[in-house]
Write a structure and sequence with these properties.
Length: 241
Amino acid sequence: MTPMPISRLLLLHLVPGALATLVFVLLAGPVETSGYPPLLALLVAIAVVIIPFELGVVLIAGRGEPGWLSAIPYREAMTARDWIVLVPVTLVAGVLGFGVLGIVEPSIRDTLFGWLPSWFLNPLPTDDIGRFTSAAWTTTLGAYLILNVFAGPIVEELYFRGYLLPRMGQFGRWAPLVNVALFSLYHFWSPWQFFTRIAGVTPFAYAVWWKRNVWLGAVVHVLLNGIGTLTVIVFVMNQLT
């Protein structure tokens, strides 16, 4: 596949994250004033910016070709053995990456980004659950489950690993790492997690690149996000009961 110009790659990697962060910043205050955790503003940004933008690019790129995923070449079949081995291996590697580097996240956040407002640094204040009603928490966590565990990760994988990664051939074997670094940078709403995301996502990004199968990345991404999200949901719900 013909490599995409670097300038266009940079724009397509970073613009959706920048726009979503802008929407998050604009909506966080009104959302919090209305009695909801600021995270709901970010979830709205995911729903109205990230998903339409990224899915739209993929669909437009494949316009005129058969199949709605025609712009995604990484759809080669994998053997059952590949699935059985690669999903748990890359999942464990991702959990370890997020877990080990996650230990230093608070220090990075407080040292480099402590000047940011509290709602930006901690949009889901699980240390102050009583600030919001049970109904507000239920609404926010329900949207968190749908968007952060399923819709968001699946669309991101179709876009970043399915559409953009195959068009980064000029980087050779470094393409997955460059793709992941830009993917991590695209999360402008949580820049202190830059290195953590690289450590957590790189294993399955290389597996997707190796096996040319975007659904492998989607499965692992969903599982990784599911572990963290469900942990938060269980914790909050236990505090509310």
